[in-house]
Amino acid sequence: MLVLALDSSTRTGSIALARDGHVLASRIGDAAVRQAVRLPGDVVALLSSHGHGLADVDLFAAAAGPGGFTGLRVGLATIQGLAMALDRRVFVASTLDLLALAGHAAAPHTRWIGVWMHGMRGEVFTALYQPSAVGAGVVPVVPAFVGTPDEAADTWAGVGPDNRIAVIGDAWPEASAALLARFGDALEPVVAPPLAEVLAIEAGHRIAEAVVPAAVRPAYVRRPDAVLTRLQAGLPVTGDVG
């Protein structure tokens, strides 16, 4: 089964091609070029470089967020459009869950995996996980939320991590002071791989969870600015609001 995975939720974004649980190729995006400009051209180019066309893809996969609102919507719309045109299904996974899986794979000796991702406005998207008792997955102990680094670090401390914590995400080390103040040497930073690679492998293992393109929904965690503005003005809100 040929899987094409796209992450547009992180700063650079990435795409990956995998077959039967093995990554064939991946490409990291250029953060200086908007997702709307790069897609879907980057997708077609990656497929072509390995002798494939869009019709060869058996399953599409997308990172659902959280992340930058515009890039996230562009990426999801790209995957939805391609899957709909080709009558394919889409596997969707939380960006935070994917980062946690990558963190666990890189530091399997740790009992805690913390995701620390830029949330803009001086905030972070975050969640805290532990390895699953069954299989190689992870389970959230602190579910996904957005807050200041101090709020997030306090929330982590509230569940009492009692061992080393693998920390992964693009808000490290820029927004790490709050974590360092509370956990110090217990923190073990992990460099994230291209997230589309993790997504492509997960999609191949979890085919039964794939959905029809129309069922794909973003996971904003925080409502978009346009929605908040309408709510503050007492105006109605329709469509996806996160």
Automatic annotation (TrEMBL):
One of its GO terms (biological process) is tRNA threonylcarbamoyladenosine modification. Signal peptide: none annotated. It comes from the Bacteria. Residues 37-129 form the Gcp-like domain. Pfam families: TsaD. This is Universal bacterial protein YeaZ. It comes from Luteitalea pratensis.
